[in-house]
Predict the structure of Isoprenylcysteine carboxyl methyltransferase.
Amino acid sequence: MLLFARLSLGRSIGFVPAQRVIVTGGAYRIVRHPIYTGIFLSFIAWTLRDYSPRVLAISVIGCGLFVLKSFIEERFLREDPEYRDYLTRVRWRWFPGI
């Protein structure tokens, strides 16, 4: 999932939200934050493989930070009319149907 999402993003990547080209193809046709989806799945797999209270805490905190980051990014990007249109076409933030 991470690889598919990253390849779908192409050169439009950064650590902070910025006005770049809005990517709407590939994995971004399905969910708005597919890289985060891959990260969430990795945290879940790690927690299931090496369960301990410490691993669970790290996974919950890590996922929580990416959830927060996605809300901050979307608040910034909603200023762009093209992104607002994208929001109407792709309803799911991280997982289809959830």
Notes: Helices lie at 2-9, 34-49, 53-77, 81-89. The chain is about 60% helix and 0% strand.
